[in-house]
């Protein structure tokens, strides 16, 4: 097994320990393992020639995420941002340890860490590609679930706002890919409304 395959295997082993489960097409998966597989699939559709660094960053985007629960931080905007920042650093650190273990050099590890932490979005092509893939996976698989969690009467308005914020993070190439997604009718209608 080469270094790349070994790194992916070790990332998957970590994510397979997620105690949270998700059912997809009749199968039950550890939540973050399923997410990481979706990220890889979407990346290779979006960027078939993606570098090893970008492929690993996509696979490790949520590595061991359940170990840092959102409710351990204040339920405020500042608390949310602090949580997200801590997650990025933790994901990068865990991934770096794996890459060192399988024999990647420091330059490679530093580049993956840069990407996992999503540094220089809109300026670095690979960071932007990763952000596009994250947004595409969110729109394809998680937007409907997010809507189900909203409880108030302004649900559609909130969903439109979320879609607009997601859209703003994406590149023109990301927008093009998003418009080709096979979304449920309700979600597709919200996307159309958000972009009008």
Report on this structure.
With 196 residues, the protein is mainly alpha-helical. It is built from nine helices and two strands; from the N terminus they run H-E-E-H-H-H-H-H-H-H-H. The chain has helices at 3-15, 31-46, 52-59, 77-102, 106-116, 125-149, 155-169, 172-178, 185-195, and strands at residues 21-24, 27-30. Strands 1-2 form a two-stranded antiparallel sheet. A hairpin with a 2-residue loop joins strand 1 (21-24) and strand 2. The longest helix has 26 residues, at 77-102. This is DUF4202 domain-containing protein. InterPro entries: DUF4202.
Helix and strand pattern: HEEHHHHHHHH
Classify the beta-strand content into a percent band. under 5%
The biggest beta sheet is recorded as: 2 strands, antiparallel
Helix content: 55-70%
* Amino-to-carboxy terminus distance: 49 Å
Q: Name the average pLDDT.
A: 92
Report the count of strand segments.
2
- Structural class comes to mainly alpha
Strand order of the largest sheet: 1-2
Radius of gyration: 17 Å
| Secondary structure tally, helices | 9
Shape, per Cα inertia axes: globular
**Poorly predicted parts:** none
């Amino acid at each position: 097994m080469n270094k790349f395959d070994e790194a992916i295997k070790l990332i998957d082993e970590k994510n397979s320990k997620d105690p949270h489960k998700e059912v997809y097409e009749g199968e039950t998966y550890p939540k973050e393992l399923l997410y990481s597989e979706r990220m890889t699939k979407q990346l290779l559709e979006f960027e078939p020639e993606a570098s090893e660094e970008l492929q690993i960053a996509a696979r490790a985007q949520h590595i061991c995420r359940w170990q840092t629960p959102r409710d351990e931080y204040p339920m405020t905007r500042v608390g949310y941002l602090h949580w997200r920042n801590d997650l990025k650093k933790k994901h990068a650190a865990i991934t770096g340890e794996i890459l060192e273990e399988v024999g990647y050099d420091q330059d490679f590890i530093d580049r993956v860490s840069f990407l996992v932490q999503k540094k220089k979005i809109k300026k670095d092509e690979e960071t932007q590609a990763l952000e596009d893939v994250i947004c595409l996976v969110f729109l394809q698989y998680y937007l409907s679930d997010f809507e189900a969690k909203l409880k108030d009467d302004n649900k559609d308005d909130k969903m439109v706002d979320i879609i607009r914020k997601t859209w703003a993070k994406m590149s023109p190439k990301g927008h093009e890919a998003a418009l080709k997604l096979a979304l449920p009718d309700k979600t597709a209608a919200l996307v159309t409304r958000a972009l009008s």
